[in-house]
Amino acid sequence: MKKTMDWSKIGFGYIKTNTMITCLYSDGKWSELQSNTDDNISISALSASLHYGLQAFEGLKAYMGADGIVRLFRPDENAKRLQSSAGYLGMVAPDTELFIKAVEMAVRENIDFVPPFGSGATLYIRPLLLGVGPQIGLDPSKEFLFLVAVTPVGGYNDVSGATKVVIDRDHDRAAPHGTGCYKVGGNYAAAMMSGYRAKKDGYSSVLYLDPKEKRWIDECGTSNFFGIRGNSYITPHSSSILPSITNKSIMTIAESFGMDVQKRPVEITELDSFDEVGSCGTAVVISPIYQIDDPAEHRIYTYKNAGAAGTTSNKLYDALYKIQFGISPDTFGWINTL
Question: Which residues are known to be catalytic?
Fold first, then answer.
């Protein structure tokens, strides 16, 4: 597979791999992990995941290092976040040990699909938890399907090229005190049309404001927002923002560089004061932003890094990249090797 595929031309789409790993929770316990060559699943048409949105998912990556070793980046954090999402929905999630075992099994069985070092591509890993079994009432499921699928992907956005985003004041991705801080499909469904329109108009994504006052910066549709002012790394905090593992890691790296890290409510008026801004997440890693348009207020915010990432964004990205690919030592204990 590796000898024939042109890894440089892979986008962020689905390519079928060897196997998918599944596990069923029933009668109070999880079954053994199963390996499936078919990436289709069979569940009841009356499953709560289909009717009431009882599903949660995760996203992480496997990286082929310069030394030929495949690495996973902080899978324990993904396990904890899935458990948090599931708990809010009344679902049963696999414990951290089972979660990591399933992820490692999926990567090992699809090792030929891990793109080589230097290709700019990675193996994307999608754990998914579904409420299954027939039911009509709006109640938590009694059975759950946990699966892990993988596919090789290129970059979602490239740190070398800055993008522009748009503020959408007419749509919210999450309600106050709702599911915004959990990784559930409903949040992405709510943001789908707004994101589609933004991309049609030439933007990379939507920058959402808080759903109550439209005064505070929330997040981009698929990633956390950050701003850099002097030696400060500033990222919004609220109950409707998904806690990004990438952002959490970048904050730790920034602190190790001696930067002042602030995770707090960020008012939209601060957009004028940042030297650099961007978004970060598993898919995008770091996506620098050179322009933010606010059509409703007839405002355009521009930053110095048009066409390229800013100096500090590049520095943070480079440090994270080198840990993930084994170029720099993992002094934080973030890496699982296969």
Answer: 183
